[in-house]
Design goal:
By secondary structure, the protein is mainly alpha-helical. It contains 11 helices and 4 strands, in the order ββααββααααααααα.
Length: 331
């Protein structure tokens, strides 16, 4: 092996090769290109001769090994974007502040010839830790510094909180104008509860008011036009419809209730298709207006999720049905 492999001339800073004409200092042994030695007419480290800082091969090897170890350590270390503490490359949460860390992408420089399958799922050039940094549709999570229409992906991740791996890739598509709609089953099936769960107060209040009004009108119709014409005992919906009095008032109420049912279904479909888009716009607006936008804790508290608000919305609709039933029973 070349004796000076990995060494560089201290004058020109160029690495030595086997074809170079190399001379060494008779006092410290530092290697130089012959032309560089003649140019300086002395050892580059001459001023350090006779001191504890004098160049030596052993000291140089030790400094080189330390630099390589430091480079490897910095390359493998994951730094928390919130508190700056260094963490293991496989850490999922910061050991200092407990915030989740973005999963790293471990990729090969080139895919193997002939293709094949990856034992970790997906394709080659990927390594996915146990907590995968991909959304269910395979879209990669955006970097925290990516712009999302005036807010960063990191700010959006802090605001969204739970299930950010689902929302952030979709929000990125909205920011890049690559998409305007999607489908969210939770927003479709549980519209008022999903809105309050995600702290979308304005839309949640409007939907909750509409659902409460629909419950009140349905209860009024039930006890005014159905209750007195049904004999005691359990009956089916078909029996209720067949026993309805065939009057103009009843027909008008049936039309009103059918319209309310159609509007309710339309609301669910709209939020099923555009719920993610509405949530993105709401989150972006609230992050921009936040007086403590630079605080991760403040963004997490302002956004995130609330099981309590979702449960409260359900209780409100349930109690509205019970109250209206009791009220109209005695009117």
């Amino acid at each position: 092996m070349f004796f000076y492999e990995g060494y560089s001339c201290p004058v020109c800073k160029k690495p030595f090769t086997e074809s170079d004409d190399i001379v060494t200092c008779p006092d410290c042994g530092a290697p130089h290109h012959r032309g560089c030695w003649q140019q300086e007419n002395r050892c580059f480290y001459a001023e350090l001769h006779g001191t504890d800082r004098q160049w030596s091969r052993e000291k140089h090897e030790a400094e080189k090994a330390t630099a390589e170890n430091r480079e490897t350590e910095n390359r493998d270390t994951v730094f928390c974007p919130h508190c700056g503490r260094s963490n293991s490359p496989f850490a999922e949460f910061c050991s200092g502040c407990g915030q989740p860390l973005q999963a790293r992408s471990w990729g090969y420089q080139s895919p193997p010839q002939g293709g094949g399958f990856s034992p970790f799922g997906g394709t080659y050039r990927e390594y996915r830790p146990f907590r995968q940094a991909t959304s269910p549709d395979g879209v990669e999570m955006p970097d925290d510094n990516v712009d999302m229409g005036g807010v960063t992906a990191g700010e959006m991740r802090q605001f969204v909180g739970q299930n950010g791996r689902y929302y952030l890739p979709r929000f990125l598509k909205f920011a890049q104008k690559n998409s305007h709609a999607g489908w969210n089953w939770a927003a479709f099936l549980l519209t008022p509860y999903w809105l309050w769960f995600r702290k979308q107060y304005f839309a949640g209040a409007l939907v909750l008011i509409f659902q409460t009004l629909r419950t009140a009108l349905s209860s009024y119709f039930l006890y005014k036009y159905v209750g007195f014409s049904v004999s005691a005992g359990s009956v089916s919906v078909l029996d209720l419809v067949q026993r309805l009095p065939n009057t103009a008032a009843t027909n008008r109420w049936l039309i009103v209730l059918q319209v309310l049912l159609l509007v309710s279904l339309t609301i669910r479909i709209v939020f099923g298709v555009f719920g993610n888009r509405f949530y993105y716009a709401s989150a972006k607006r609230r992050i921009r207006r936040s007086p403590m936008r630079n605080s991760a804790d403040a963004l997490a508290a302002s956004g995130g999720v609330s099981f309590g608000l979702g449960a409260a919305a359900y209780i409100v609709l349930y109690l509205a049905g019970v109250f209206c039933g009791i009220l109209f029973m005695y009117i």
